Amino acid sequence: KWFPTHVQATVLQATDLQPKGKNGTNDAYTIIQLGKEKYSTSVAEKTLSPTWREEASFELPGLLMESNPEVYELCLTVMHR
């Protein structure tokens, strides 16, 4: 069997975000998390439809082996600065 050693996530964009900041816009960024590892994109200022096109790579040190009972989720969260 083949077990991957890394996962790569690309954050392209978000659309129609709810306004959180002054003037009805956002200063948005995305947090990508796998297990305890985190990556944050840059901040896209004053927009409700930000574009990032940023990548993050996470190592999977034996996480997907048959005998490993641990389960990890790749979680992406869009935040307002």
Automatic annotation (TrEMBL):
Q: What is the lineage of its organism?
A: Eukaryota, Metazoa, Chordata, Craniata, Vertebrata
Question: Which domain of life does the protein's organism represent?
Answer: Eukaryota
Intracellular or extracellular location(s): Recycling endosome
Principal subcellular localisation of the protein: other
Query: What residue stretches are annotated with the C2 domain?
Result: 1-81
What keywords tag this UniProt record?
Endosome
Gene Ontology CC entries for this record: recycling endosome
| Alphabetical list of Pfam families matching this protein | C2 (PF00168)
Presence of keyword ATP-binding: no
What's this protein's name?
C2 domain-containing protein
SUPFAM superfamilies on file: C2 domain (Calcium/lipid-binding domain, CaLB) (SSF49562)
